[in-house]
Amino acid sequence: MSQVQQSGEVTLSTRAMVPSMQRVGNREIEVTFLGNNTHGQPTWVLWNPNEPYLIGMLIQGKLGFDFEQRTDSGVMLHENISLQRVQRALAGY
User: Fold this and answer.
1) What is the tally of helices (H) and strands (E) in the chain?
2) How far apart are CA 67 and CA 87, in angstroms?
3) Is the alpha carbon torsion for 81, 37, 15, 89 positive or negative?
């Protein structure tokens, strides 16, 4: 795994199946690029590396990102949002 990114900005690697650690707010998140899905869209999985706990899936679409976030009350789907909005969703998770 690579070092934790300290900038506060999520950096999405496109190296397939190579996890990287990201710091978002006060959390560390493991981000792994899975490759393109069946629609040809880049897809990442986000994990809490300390437990391990699935945080969600991130898919890059034509108009932005779709983020399927796991919550205590079920799955929350954020559609066509910016990467900055994804960061805010992760920091407040």
Assistant:
1) 1, 6
2) 10
3) positive
Distance between CA 77 and CA 61 in Å, rounded? 14
- On whether the CB atoms of residues 23 and 6 are closer than 8 A, the answer is yes
DSSP code, position 74? E
The answer to whether 24 and 8 are in contact (CB under 8 A) is yes
Mean pLDDT by 10 residues, the chain (93 residues): 46 89 86 95 93 90 89 85 86 65
Nearest-CA neighbor of 24 among 81, 84, 82, 65?
Answer: 84
Note whether 46 and 55 are within 8 A (CB).
Answer: yes
pTM: 0.80
CB 23 within 8 A of CB 14: no
Q: Are strands 53-60 and 42-48 parallel, antiparallel or unpaired?
A: antiparallel
Residue 91, phi then psi, degrees to nearest 5: -70, -30
